[in-house]
Design brief:
Radius of gyration: 17 Å
InterPro entries: DinB-like, DinB/YfiT-like
Number of domains: 1
Organism: Rufibacter glacialis
CATH class: Mainly Alpha
CATH topology: Four Helix Bundle (Hemerythrin (Met), subunit A)
CATH architecture: Up-down Bundle
Number of strands: 2
Protein name: DinB family protein
Order of helices and strands: HHHHHHEEH
Length: about 170
């Protein structure tokens, strides 16, 4: 079920990408916010890092007894981030790149989907993997990293809708 959810979420992002040309992808609703393209780039970069953490779990096999922090447990129990705008690290936010071209964003997202499906096969067959540490939420197993990655993409759908609404009103003017 986790893999199906993840594939459905990625497919939604890929389908919605068709709505935007490069100019729209690069248009920011305000100086402090991200463009739609930056949002896509953020998801590609972060999800890639989450998948790398899953690989760390397979390679190192350390920390198997360590757990996620208490503040992470409701996120996993509810299978979603809190319904609020989460202020991220300003350094990261300020350094999310604008896309250079539309086809690269599409290709990178499609590649991400392939990597997600490949790593799921490893998760299903892994023997006694370790855990890798999330910077603020404690230690995650491969399945927990996988779930976290999908929840992260789901969480950003609300942000995508806000940016889309801005782009729609800009186009209508």
């Amino acid at each position: 079920m986790l893999l199906d959810d993840f594939n459905n979420t990625i497919d939604k992002w890929l389908t919605d990408l068709q709505r935007y040309d490069l100019d729209k992808l690069r248009t920011k609703p305000d100086t402090a916010g991200w463009s739609m393209g930056q949002l896509y780039m953020h998801l590609i970069e972060e999800t890639t890092w989450y998948l790398e953490q899953i690989e760390v779990c397979f390679i190192s096999k350390v920390n198997p007894a360590l757990t996620m922090k208490e503040n992470a447990k409701p996120i996993f129990y509810n299978n979603s981030f809190p319904n609020e705008i989460i202020k991220g690290d300003p350094f990261i936010s300020d350094h999310v790149k604008q896309p250079t071209d539309w086809k690269t964003v599409q290709a990178d997202f499609q590649k991400l989907k392939e990597e997600v499906n490949e790593i799921w096969l490893k998760i299903e067959t892994a023997e006694s993997p370790g855990k890798a540490e999330h910077p603020g939420l404690g230690f995650f197993s491969p399945v927990e990293w996988f779930q976290y990655a999908e929840m992260h993409m789901q969480h950003h759908l609300k942000q995508k809708e806000r940016i889309h609404n801005f782009l729609s009103t800009k186009t209508a003017q």
